[in-house]
C-alpha cells in the first residue's frame, strides 16, 4: 500500500478548500474510509497503522504550515522558534486509526503569542476533525527536567 500517494491525494482536497476545519474533517473521514476498506481487503494492521501515521503527518504538517503562515501574514512575528513533536504511537509511526494523537508543542524559553495562537488553532482544527489529541506545551528546560 502506498500510504504517501493516498495521503497526498487526500491532501490536495484540503489545500483546495479554504475552509480549513471542514476540509480537515473531510480529509480524516476519507482517510479512515480508505484505510478501513484496504484493511477489510486484507492489508495487515501494522501496515494500516503506518499508513494512518503518514496520513496524519501530512495533515498536521499542512495545518501547522497554513496556520503559521496566516499568523505571520497578519502579525510579523520576530520569535517563531517553535517545534511540533509527535509522541507515542504516532511518534513511532504506529498510529491506529482510532487511537489518540500525542503531540508536544516545544518552544525555547517563553510562550509567545505566535506559539499560543498556532497551538490553539491547530488543536481546535484537529478536534473539529473528530480526532482525539493528547498534547502538552513545554519549554526545552521543562522537557530536560
Describe it:
It is a single chain. By secondary structure, the protein is an alpha+beta fold. It has one domain (3-144): Beta Polymerase, domain 2. It is built from six helices and three strands, in the order αααβαβαβα. The protein has helices at 3-16, 20-40, 45-74, 88-92, 113-128, 140-144, and strands spanning 82-87, 101-107, 133-139. Helix 5 (113-128) links the parallel strand 2 and strand 3 (133-139).
Key traits:
3-stranded mixed beta sheet, Beta Polymerase, domain 2, 145 residues, alpha+beta, 3 strands, 6 helices, 63% helix
Which helices and strands appear, and what pairs or packs with what?
Layout: H1 3-16, H2 20-40, H3 45-74, E1 82-87, H4 88-92, E2 101-107, H5 113-128, E3 133-139, H6 140-144
Parallel strand pairs: 2-3
Antiparallel strand pairs: 1-2
Write a brief caption for the model:
This protein is α+β, with helices and mostly antiparallel strands.
- Domain unit count: 1
CATH superfamily: Beta Polymerase, domain 2
Note the overall shape: globular
Classify the beta-strand content into a percent band: 5-15%
Question: What summary fits the major beta sheet?
Answer: 3 strands, mixed
In the CATH scheme, what's the topology name? Beta Polymerase, domain 2
CATH class label: Alpha Beta
Helical content stands at 55-70%
How far is it from the N-terminal to the C-terminal residue, by CA? 41 Å
What is the gyration radius calculated from CA atoms? 16 Å
Along the chain, the helix and strand elements come as: HHHEHEHEH
Instruction: Enumerate how many helices there are, as a single number.
Output: 6
SSE class: alpha+beta
Amino acid at each position: 500500500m502506498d500510504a504517501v500517494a493516498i495521503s497526498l491525494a487526500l491532501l490536495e482536497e484540503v489545500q483546495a478548500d479554504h475552509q480549513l476545519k471542514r476540509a480537515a474533517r473531510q480529509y480524516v473521514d476519507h482517510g479512515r474510509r480508505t484505510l478501513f476498506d484496504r484493511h477489510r481487503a486484507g492489508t495487515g494492521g501494522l501496515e494500516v497503522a503506518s499508513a494512518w501515521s503518514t496520513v496524519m503527518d501530512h495533515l498536521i504538517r499542512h495545518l501547522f504550515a497554513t496556520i503559521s503562515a496566516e499568523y505571520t501574514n497578519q502579525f510579523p512575528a520576530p520569535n517563531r522558534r517553535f517545534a511540533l513533536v509527535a509522541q507515542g504511537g504516532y511518534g513511532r509511526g504506529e498510529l491506529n486509526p482510532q487511537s489518540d494523537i500525542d503531540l508536544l508543542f516545544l518552544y525555547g524559553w517563553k510562550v509567545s503569542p505566535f506559539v499560543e495562537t498556532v497551538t490553539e488553532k491547530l488543536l481546535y482544527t484537529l478536534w473539529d476533525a473528530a480526532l482525539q489529541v493528547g498534547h502538552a506545551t513545554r519549554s526545552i528546560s521543562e522537557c530536560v527536567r
